[in-house]
Automatic annotation (TrEMBL):
<protein>
    <submittedName>
        <fullName>Putative amidohydrolase</fullName>
    </submittedName>
</protein>
<keyword id="KW-0378">Hydrolase</keyword>
<dbReference type="InterPro" id="IPR036526">
    <property type="entry name" value="C-N_Hydrolase_sf"/>
</dbReference>
<dbReference type="GO" id="GO:0016811">
    <property type="term" value="F:hydrolase activity, acting on carbon-nitrogen (but not peptide) bonds, in linear amides"/>
</dbReference>
<dbReference type="InterPro" id="IPR003010">
    <property type="entry name" value="C-N_Hydrolase"/>
</dbReference>
<feature type="domain" description="CN hydrolase">
    <location>
        <begin position="5"/>
        <end position="241"/>
    </location>
</feature>
<dbReference type="InterPro" id="IPR050345">
    <property type="entry name" value="Aliph_Amidase/BUP"/>
</dbReference>
<dbReference type="Pfam" id="PF00795">
    <property type="entry name" value="CN_hydrolase"/>
</dbReference>
Length: 317
């Protein structure tokens, strides 16, 4: 059956603060900032809010790294707790990305996933922080990357620089996420579509302005994007979908459309020869369609191609 999920990605500009008010004043200024910007998307009743990397970092002229980490220590979980209350009130998930202090005094660049009750249902620590961040702070590299289970699907989290590393991509691809959440300070360019396609997953990014936040399908199509003047984007995606190749499926897909019409959506991004097939009804699921019409999933087709190449007499000597 269809699994519609409404996603809001938001990344307003860094908040210029008055450090003269002390750490307490700065924390309050950051809470006020997010209280204001959440109102741009909460009326749309999203299932998931994605915030950018280090979303509660303040900014002011000549701010030092020492001051920033002292701010982190003072802030603790207060901004996360504010967002948790918003998650409870509006019954949504929130991907909260921030530098957090560990019990041993070291830090992690982390995404904490808040559920509809405001509880942390999963945490991802950035596996590939930059050399600069490691050399100028007590932040350590993360060492795990596990999908997070939600009531609408399996979520993979990555943060900024992570998007450049195939080791992490391959680790997530094996876990078959439904959605990749990308909290970042830069866009990543073609890597967004590459991650979405490789994982056969939708992709939602929140990226600091002036770059654009976007929502991408498993076949690399951008279905929603923020703008320079409106740093928010909300779209509904259907996670009850599969990716299939043109070969050996074309005639079957024609039969699917003739029988089910608008109940099944076939999206062709062109040039890729791979289609996204989605179930648009609660009468059945996309797996029911796969079974009824014997559709061959893209990964299964790739496996069959590799096996055919390895058959006796098929490979040049």
């Amino acid at each position: 059956m269809s699994k519609y999920v409404k996603i809001s990605c938001l990344a307003p500009p860094l908040k210029e603060v008055d450090p003269g008010q002390g750490f307490e004043g700065v924390v309050n200024q950051m809470i006020e900032k997010w209280e204001e910007h959440l109102q741009h998307v909460l009326p749309e009743r999203p299932d998931l809010l994605v915030l950018p990397e280090c979303c509660d970092d303040p900014a002011f002229k000549d701010m030092s790294m020492e001051w920033l980490y002292e701010y982190y220590r003072y802030r603790g979980n207060r901004i996360r707790d504010f967002l948790a209350q918003a998650a409870r009130t509006h019954r949504c998930y929130i991907a909260y990305s921030a530098n957090v202090e560990m019990p041993d005094g070291s830090f992690r660049n982390a995404t904490q996933f808040l559920d509809r009750a405001g509880e942390v249902c999963g945490t991802y620590n950035k596996n590939y922080i930059t050399i600069r961040q490691k050399s100028t702070s007590d932040t350590l590299y993360g060492n795990e990357a596990q999908v997070i289970q939600t009531d609408f699907g399996r979520i993979a989290c990555i943060i900024c620089f992570d998007i450049n590393f195939n080791e992490l991509l391959e680790q997530y691809a094996e876990q078959k996420p439904d959605l990749i959440v990308f909290s970042s300070a830069y866009h990543g360019g073609l890597m967004q579509a590459y991650w979405a396609y490789t994982c056969r997953a939708h992709f939602a990014s929140a990226i600091w302005r002036p770059d654009y936040s976007s929502i991408v399908t498993p076949v690399g199509e951008v279905v929603g994007e923020s703008t320079l003047f409106y740093p928010y984007v909300t779209r509904t995606v259907n996670l009850d979908s599969v990716v299939v190749h043109y070969d050996y499926n074309w005639e079957k897909l024609e039969l699917v459309k003739r029988k089910y019409g608008t109940k099944v959506l076939i999206s062709d991004p062109t040039r890729l020869n791979a289609f996204l097939v989605s179930c648009e009804t609660d009468e059945f699921s996309i797996q029911d369609i796969v079974k009824e019409f014997d559709l061959e999933l893209l990964d299964d087709y790739w496996m069959r191609c590799r096996a055919d190449r390895g058959k006796p007499g098929h490979l040049e000597q």
